[in-house]
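User: I'll paste a sequence; please echo it back and then give the predicted structure.

Assistant: Echoing your sequence first, then the prediction.
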Amino acid sequence: MSARLVLTGLLAFFLFGCQGEQQNGVESQDTREISVGTAQGEAVPVSAIRATRDTMVQYISTIGTFQPLKSTTIVAPVEGRVASVLMKNGIEVKTGDLLLQLHTAPYQDKLIRARSTFIRSLSAAVQEFRADSTPQAEFLSDYLNDVLHSPAIDPLPLIALHGNKEIPAGLKAGLGSGLGGDSDSGALVFTNREYMVLARHDVPGAYADVRQAERDLTSTEIRAPFSGILFGVTGSGGELIQTGAELATLTSLDTLQVAIDILESNLRDVTPGTPFRILANDGSVIARGKIDGISPAIDEETRTAEAFAILPNPDHLWKASQHLQIEVRKARFPDRLVVPKEAVLTRNERDLVFIVQDGLAKWRYIETGPENKRMVSIQSGIAPGDTVIVRGHYTLAHDSPVNFRMVNPNKIRQSNSN
C-alpha cells in the first residue's frame, strides 16, 4: 500500500512538472514573437533623395592666394621737413589725393636761383646772337622776353642740334617738353655755331636745372598715384625725412590676381581656360573664374606650379595675401546617374544602397563609376527616379519599414563639407 502511494506521488509530480515546463516554453516563445513583431512594425525615420541623371564633375581641391595687381610703397621723392600728414592707416584714397606735404620754402628758393641762372645764361647768348646777326637772334630775344614776364618758363624748343638734322626719336622722347620740344615746330633750326653759342653760355644746362627745380618743388606734395587703401603709414608733422624714405604702402583691391597651387601630377589636367570655383568656409561657391595662365616653374619643395587668374573685387571681399579654398575642374562626365556619397554603404566588401519601395527599405547592390568628394555615379543597380536613402540607413536590414522624408541633395553636400 505504501509502495503504491509513493509511485502515485512520483507520477503526479512528474506530470505536474512537465506541464509547467510546457507552459513556460510557450510563454517565452510568445514573448519573443511579440518582441520581433514590434521591431518589424516600427518605421525607421530616414532621409532620401531622388536618383537623377546629371553631369559628374571632378575637381582638384587646392588653395589659392590673392595678390593685388596694383600695390606700391609711397616714398619721399625729395628730402624735407614734414608740414602736414593727411594719410591714415586703412583709409581709402583716390588718385591724386594729397597724402603728405613737405615745407616748400627751400625748394622755392632753389627754383628762384635756377631761374635766375637760366635768365643770365640766356641773356648772354641772345647778346652774342644779336652781335653776330644770327638767324635765330629774334626768336631767342622773344623767348627771353616771355621768360622775364611769365612766372613759368615755357619749353625751350631746341628741335635740332645742328643743321637740319632732328634730334633722334629716343632722345626726343626722353627730353619730352624740355630740350627738344616738338618736331613739328616748323623751320626753327640751329646751326652748329649757334648751338655752340648756347652751350658756351650753358643755356641747355641752366634750362635743365630750372626744370629739375620745378619738379622738386612739385614733389613736396606727395600724392596718391592711384586709388587704393593705405597701411604702414609713417611720418609726423615736423619730422625731417630723407629722399627715398618709405612713408606708406598703397594697395588697390579693386582687381586681384589669385595664384592657385597645382600639384605636379595634376598639371596635365589644367590649361588656360580651365574653370575653377572659390569656396566659402561652409563649402558654398562664392565665385567662379577661369585659369589665365600657368607658371613654367615647379616648386622643388612642394612639387606644385602656380596657375593664375585675374578676378574683379569691387566690394573688396578678398584681401591681399588671403588664402581661400579653390576647386579646379579636372574632368566632366555628362549624363551620369548620380547620388550623394552618403547613400553608399559597403557590406561583405560590396557597395550597396537602400531604396524605398512601398514603405520598405530595399537592399540593392550597385556598381559605381566616377566620383568626386560629394557625389558618386551609379553604373548599375538602381534606376533614375528611385528613392535612395541617404541618412538613417546604417543599421537598416532588407525590408525594414521606413518613414522617409525627401531632402535637397545640395544641402547634404554643403553640410557634409563643413
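Residues 1-39, 159-187, 414-418 have pLDDT under 50 and may be disordered. The helical segments are 2-41, 105-131, 137-149, 169-175, 192-200, 203-218, 409-416.
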